[in-house]
Structure formats: structure tokens, C-alpha cells
Amino acid sequence: MMSIAFAALLVAAGLGIGDESPLPEPVATAVLDTSATLPGCPVRLSIGVQHQPGFVPDFPDPEGDPFPGFSIRGAKRAEPEVMDNGQTISRIEYRLVSHLLDSTLVIPQLPIDLLPADSTARAGFALTDPLAVHIGSSISADELEAAELRPERPPVPIPPPVPWGRIALAAIAGALVAWLLWRWWKRRRAKEAPESVFASFEPPRPAHEIALEEIEALGASEIAREGPAKRFYTEACDILRRYFDGRFGVDAPDLTSEELIGALEQESLSGRVRSLVRNALREADLVKFARLDPAWSEWGGVLDRAREIVHSTTPVPEPEVTDPPHFGSDGALPAHPAGAEEDDA
User: Fold this and answer.
1) 200 or 139, which is more confident
2) Distance CA 104, CA 131 (A)
3) In sequence order, what are the residues at sequence separation of 6 or more whose Cβ sits closer than 8 angstroms to the Cβ of residue 255?
4) Rg of the Cα trace of the chain?
5) What residues does each domain of the chain span?
6) Each residue's pLDDT tens digit, 28-46
């Protein structure tokens, strides 16, 4: 029995029963899309790792500085791909830019740690091959050697800060002084010539005086002799409208005839004056808009009615107030001075 068991152990050892086969090592590759570029032009670096499923490669962090001489302008990680042999390929692409001039930059070997997907323990790593890229120049070396450097400029002096607070205080003080001088000059002028303010003031002329002058001027004008009738009636009607505006405060020039007649109804006018105003305005509208052509002999009546309207609505001047007679203590009128009776006789 012992010999049979030992033989079975030997067969198992020869066949490798009970041994675990080792996992294949991960393989990392790095590829540049170009080997030469110019300052400021982007270079694309692709890194791929072939590994067993269930692991995640720890690629270089874009926030750090893993590529000396380059700045990372972007990084894009692709979705993992499953190969026919069951392994997985994970890829990432970096967008690198360098501003160095006429130099060769080397991207060193990058260790890519392989981490299990369900933990943070390190399960292995892979190394990429070093890569080199030449950063050229749009200017040739001969042009760089022949170029003359500009002389160093002297430092630019920085002007002192503007004292805005002092400027504002000075402006306020100046305005205050100007206002005080203006008040002093105004008071002095008022003391020197107190009557000069009212010397050139003339009270406005009464509306009826202006209207009567305009009526007489229209009657003596060439329009009253030769026409045409439409212009004559228009001028006569405008005289009345301006008179009503100045006499009653009615905005007569901007009102229609019917609106003006309605506005004058609020004034204390006699029935005849109302009839004269109504007939004058409506007759003028017929001549202006209905092409009524009255005879020349009727034109004088237009001015007569206008005069009557103005005279009938002219305000009556108030009587001057005189001193009342002084009565004595007994209620009798004072005696006439000597000789007053003889003069009266």
C-alpha cells in the first residue's frame, strides 16, 4: 500500500497537480504621434497597459508634473478593451505642449502600478520605454546667431498715486468760494441799482388793444382790397382766436371752431356776442374748407362783427378808490374853505 501511494505522489508531481500557474506580467507601451515639433504645438502621448482583468492601471496624474519640460493641456482615458486571450488593454492619451526653443526633451520610463479593482493594494507594475521629442524653432540657427539683441531699456518710473481725496476737497472749496463771490456780487449789484431790475419791465398790453389794432391793420391791408377771400377770412378768424386766448385764457389757436364755441360757453357772454362768435367762426370755416366765395361787399361786415365782439367783451376798468369824506364828531360835513361858495357860484 505504501508503494502504491508513493507512486501516486510521484505521478502527481510529474504532472504538476496542485501547482498554481503564475499570472503573466503586465506590459506597458508609450507612443508619441511625432518625434519633432515646434514650440507651442501640441504633442499626443498614448500609454497602453495589457493586464489581467480585474485590475486598474494607475496612470500618471495630469495634475502633477510627470513629463519634465511639458505642460499637460488635457488627458482622455479610453474604455478598456478585452483581447481574444482574455486579457484587458487600458489606454490613456495626454495632450502635451512645450515652449522651449531648439531643445530635445526626453520622457523617461514611467512606472505604471497595477491595482486590484476592489482594493488599493499594489498588485504589480509595468515600465514604459523612454521617448524623445525634439522641439525645433521657426528661426534657423544662423538667423539666431545673426540677430542683434536690443539694448536693455532703462526702468520705467512708476508715477505716484493720484491724490483724489485732495483734488475732491479742492474742487468743493473752489465751488464754495465761487458761490460766495456770486452772492456777494449779486447783493452789491442789487444795492447799487435797485430800480434797474424793474426799469425795463413793461406790463403786457391788454388783449383788446392788440386785437383792435390788428383789425384796423387788416382792413387797411392789400388783402382787404384784393383778396383772396380765403386768406382774408382766415386772418380775421385768427385775430379773434388770438384775442380769445389772451382775454379768456382759452387755447383758441389749437381748438376747432366747435370746440372753441363750447369753451366760450363757460364764459359770461351775452346772447348776441355768442351768436356773433358762432356765426363768425362757422362762416370762416365755410370759406376756408367749403370753398364759399362771398362777395367783396360782404368783407367789411366781417371786420365790423369782429370789432363788436372785442368791444362787447372788453373788461370794464375798476373805478379808482378815493378817500371818503371825513365827518366831524357831530356827523356833519366839514365846512368849505373861504371863497369856495363864491367859486361855486
Assistant:
1) 139
2) 10
3) 263
4) 58
5) 27-138, 207-313
6) 888 988 888 888 888 898 9
The C-alpha atoms of residue 213 and residue 209 are separated, in whole angstroms, by 6
- Nearest C-alpha neighbor of 260 from the set 272, 248, 152: 248
135 contacts 104 by C-beta, under 8 angstroms: yes
Please check whether residue 112 is in contact with residue 106, taking contact to mean a CB–CB distance below 8 angstroms: no
Q: How far apart are CA 11 and CA 18, in angstroms?
A: 12
What's the average model confidence in pLDDT over 285-313?
A: 84
Q: At 296, list the grid cell.
A: 367783396
pLDDT at 332: 54
Closest CA to 104 of 34, 30, 36: 36
According to the model, what pLDDT value does residue 252 have?
A: 81
Looking at CATH, the fold of the domain delimited by 27-138 is given as Immunoglobulin-like (2.60.40)
Q: Between 33 and 22, where is the model more confident?
A: 33
Helices assigned H by DSSP within the chain: 2-15, 141-146, 164-192, 196-199, 207-219, 222-226, 229-248, 257-264, 271-289, 299-313, 340-344
150, amino acid identity: R
Q: What three-state secondary structure class fits 206? A: coil
> Of all residues in the chain, what percent carry a pLDDT higher than 70?
77
Q: Which of 238, 224, 193, 246 is nearest to 297 (CA)?
A: 224
SS3 label, residue 256 = coil
CA distances in angstroms from 266 to 238, 249, 271, 273, listed in the order given? 21, 12, 13, 13
